[in-house]
Design a protein that fits this description.
Blueprint lengths: L1 H18 L2 H27 L10 E4 L4 E2 L2 E6 L9 E9 L5 E12 L2 E4 L1 H6 L11 H10 L4 E6 L3 E2 L4 E10 L7 H17 L6 E11 L3
Antiparallel strand pairs: 1-2, 1-4, 3-10, 4-9, 5-6, 5-8, 5-10, 7-9
């Protein structure tokens, strides 16, 4: 009786093995291995997670009375020898938790109808730089030195401290009654007068300046 029972069990095992294909066993092994790997990755990711504090970042610009953007238009309607010095201050307020670096580029300048677009200005507008385009630094030097009037640029600090720090960027235009170059005074004084006569609604000098703010490395 016992011998017969053993034979039946053996026959049943052989029948089961015949029904199960080797490919089925391989698939089962692969599925188990995949699930184990996914579980290991999940556990590893959870165990390596950290709490991250996102620092507040807020910079505001104003011209002393009115909010402005980082691209500032500076406009002087009329210029002439002996004019009262024109000033356009732009304040950058840092309300962030980290200090900030501040810099600027002149994107464009128009002097009595002649427009100069800098390399930075072309890039900012998504245009290709053209032959003869000056850099912002080169145009700044030209504006400060090549005319009887002086267009100057001043940045109070290249770093704005965190939590209510302020940096002021100022564009000034001055033209002393006697610049020291009579011929230049006469030439450009005449040009300024003729330009306003021909274009009464246009400004003698207009600038487009962009202020760049980046987080200082902590």
């Amino acid at each position: 009786m016992i011998e017969e029972t053993k034979k039946k069990k053996k026959s049943l095992c052989l029948l089961i093995l015949k029904k199960i294909k080797i490919s089925h066993i391989l698939i089962l092994i692969i599925l188990l291995a995949g699930n184990s790997y996914a579980w290991f990755i999940y556990i590893n990711n959870v165990s390596n997670s950290v709490d991250v504090h996102v620092r507040a970042w807020k910079i505001d610009f104003d011209d002393g009375t009115t909010p402005v953007t980082e691209v500032v238009d500076v406009v002087a309607d009329n210029v002439y020898p002996g004019m009262v010095t024109f000033e356009k201050p732009i304040n950058a307020h840092n309300y962030s938790e980290v200090s900030a670096n501040v810099s600027f580029s002149i994107l464009e300048a128009t002097i009595m109808g002649t427009t100069y677009v800098t390399q930075e200005g072309r890039t900012d507008a998504g245009q290709a730089v053209q032959s003869g385009d000056l850099t912002s630094a080169a145009l700044q030097q030209q504006l400060e030195n090549d005319y009887p009037f002086t267009i100057s640029f001043d940045l109070s600090s290249s770093t704005i401290q965190a939590e209510n720090g302020v940096a002021t960027y100022t564009v000034s235009i001055s033209w002393p009654y006697e610049s020291g170059d009579d011929d230049a005074d006469t030439l450009w004084g005449t040009r300024a007068y003729e330009f306003k006569q021909a274009h009464p609604t246009e400004s003698c000098i207009s600038l487009k300046v962009k202020i760049y703010i980046t987080q200082a490395s902590s």
